[in-house]
Design goal:
183 residues; alpha/beta; Rossmann fold; 2 domains; 4-stranded parallel beta sheet; 4 strands; 46% helix; 10% strand
Length: 183
């Protein structure tokens, strides 16, 4: 059994240091919310030579509180979706995220509508549309396969949803809702 007397004694002394309460109330939350501090910690402690450097995926601007960085990452593919429908689908996604508080979305699209995702603070990736693909030695399918593999590995995705022209389906909503942590 571990001896807990020493850490308790140290904490008793630390609590007596002038400015401790101020630091606990103001400095610690700022460090916890700092993207730079998170990036430094991830690079120092989450080093794996076989994987890409992990990104700290934000939960966006709609969720707050401790534990949001532990929510699973869901890659939402909006490939082939018309540009005028992207904002509507991202709005649906934001509504679902608020209702379930169960995932951090990464939006992947092939139309330059990044502002729809960034308005909520979601990371967004832009791929080249199949109609605009002009590479002579690589097919668009190979490009898509390798790019999606990089996205899934980089963001350490737990799930992915492919959104069709009608938006999020009932099954998509159920899948994203099922990612919510069990209490």
């Amino acid at each position: 059994m571990a001896d807990h007397r020493k850490p308790r004694r140290v904490m008793r002394h630390v609590r007596r240091i002038p400015g401790y309460r101020y630091a606990r109330r103001t400095v610690v939350p700022r460090i916890r919310d700092s993207a730079t501090a998170r990036a430094v910690v991830h690079r120092l402690f989450a080093v794996d030579s076989k994987q890409h450097t992990p990104l700290d995926v934000t939960a966006g601007r709609l969720l707050a509180g401790i534990g949001r960085e532990r929510l699973p990452v869901a890659v939402v593919l909006l490939l082939g979706l018309p540009a005028e429908r992207v904002r509507e689908v991202v709005d649906e996604l934001a509504e679902l995220q608020v209702l379930t508080a169960g995932f951090r979305p990464v939006v992947v699209m092939d139309v330059p509508e990044l502002s729809a995702a960034r308005a909520y603070g979601y990371p967004a990736e832009l791929l080249i549309a199949p109609a605009d693909w002009a590479h002579a030695t690589q097919t668009w399918d190979d490009y898509l396969r390798s790019t999606l593999a990089t996205i899934f590995a980089t963001y350490r995705s737990t799930a992915s949803v492919t959104v069709g022209p009608d938006g999020l389906t009932h099954t998509d909503r159920l899948l994203l809702g099922a990612l919510a942590p069990r209490v």
